[in-house]
């Protein structure tokens, strides 16, 4: 069951990244982040009220607050890195965040079997290759690499923190709500600072009308991201974190396949090989 939850996480994160990428072609990235998370807050708030999840308030929710604070910082660092360096280098490096929850699992005493260790190694290599790394002709600024590593650590930290934020299903709803409220506060603050500095917050074409017409897509991105965090927390609770984290980090493969299916982008040979290795790693992990 843990493996299924983790694979569902990859599917939803991959589709959310794909949808978010499409939206950022039409409007500022920070606007996409804040707007999509606002929709998630409204939906999660309704779920918390309907299920009575607010009764499970406790000190463990500080993990959710921390995850909510780290997430926007990681995302903004990642977007900045993409602006400075070639995507074919930055995107695969960003997936190195999987090392954080894997490291936490090992520190907590988890010891995967030999077959699972092999699956972890194969899957991680597959994810890196699926991003389509550029092995030559791609000059990368040191700042871009540092920002990418900050983003990767942030993404991994969110995975580790949200897994510790609840012990029950209704508690998970509350934890996700707290995380998203913190996301909106942190992202909204960054958006305010951006406006003060004169940066645009609305699309050049259509302005607010474009944002309103994109609400269904923004809702999908925000809710898919929330659902992915939820299924990852369940995966980490019902099985080894080391395995759940790696399986949940297969989302670059989903994003690449979505681009192939929807945008008709052709997969490079290295991406196809990476997708195959990721699948092989998944089989080894499940078999172990």
Number of strands: 0
Helical content stands at: over 70%
Radius of gyration: 18 Å
Number of helices: 13
| Helix-strand makeup class | mainly alpha
- How many domains make up the 3D coordinates? 1
Strand content: under 5%
Pfam families: EamA
GO cellular component, one term: membrane
Keywords: Membrane, Transmembrane, Transmembrane helix
Family: Belongs to the EamA transporter family.
What can you see in these coordinates?
It is a single chain. With 288 residues, this protein is mainly α. The chain has one domain (2-287). 77% of the residues lie in helices and 0% in strands. It is built from 13 helices and no strands. Helix 1 runs parallel beside helix 11. The longest helix has 28 residues, at 169-196. It is globular. The mean pLDDT is 80.
List its traits:
288 residues; mainly alpha; 13 helices; membrane; transmembrane; EamA family transporter; EmrE-like
How are the SSEs placed, and which strands pair?
Blueprint: H1 2-23, H2 29-51, H3 61-84, H4 87-94, H5 99-107, H6 114-130, H7 142-162, H8 169-196, H9 208-213, H10 215-238, H11 241-248, H12 251-262, H13 269-287
Helix pairs in contact: 1-10, 1-11, 1-12, 2-8, 2-10, 3-4, 3-7, 3-8, 4-7, 5-7, 5-11, 6-11, 6-13, 8-10, 10-11
